[in-house]
Amino acid sequence: AINARSAALTFFPHPREVIQGRSDPFYLSRFSERVEQIAEQGIDLIITHPFNQQVRNMRAADFVAQMVAHLDLKQLWGGSFSLGYRREGDFAYLTQAGQAAGFSVHRFAPVHENETHISSSTIRQLLRNARVAEAAQLLTRPYAVSGEVIYGRQLGRTIGFPTANIAVWKKQLLPENGVYASYIHIDGKRYAAATNVGVRPTIEPNQPITIEAHILDFSADIYHKHVRLDFIDHVRPEQKFGGLDALKTQIKQDVAQVRQILALQPPLC
Prior knowledge:
single chain; alpha+beta; 28% strand; 8 helices; Elongation Factor Tu (Ef-tu), domain 3; 6-stranded antiparallel barrel; Rossmann fold
């Protein structure tokens, strides 16, 4: 053991966004939430750094020199990562640089759950396949989105199922369109909800994707409140019905199934 503090370096935006020009939703959390999640691991110091063209073109030697100068670096830990321009600062390079600068380099072993390699790519694929319960196992927490409750068309209340329309970050990846058993967190309290992710093909086809949560046994006004929505399990895919009566019948079945799913969840600690 060494007498040193732990520090985590994280970039925003994601390097893929800058290097590849990626614009599709692929983030797994807001940046502020990522920082909070890192802090929960007991890290002493969290360094948030913008990733831009200047950082992209920084040579590995310059990157290492800055870390040594600003952090008094003793150990460098990472997974399958590289530093510097065109990833020239790979594990072998960093090991050699560390020998010269007085720090050691260590590689985290891959983490598996039931023989599944845990990675952001794996989690994204699970979400795209509506497998939110499996994603939660790898994350060790439910996959969540957050945002302000905004006014929608208020069509749900006309068929007896009012919903909270949540304006989430457009760059965050959403689970595949469908109905989900979920929990919504409002003012520090958790409520059960049947949540629809999709384009509402029965009511308004060809519309942007929305997230609408029907909160069970709840009637308070929560417009403009910031809420968090945890996806617990998939109920069914999105589908188009012949009319509002058929949709209403299906929603009743969805709500009953959501109650059954959430009844099996462990209580809050």
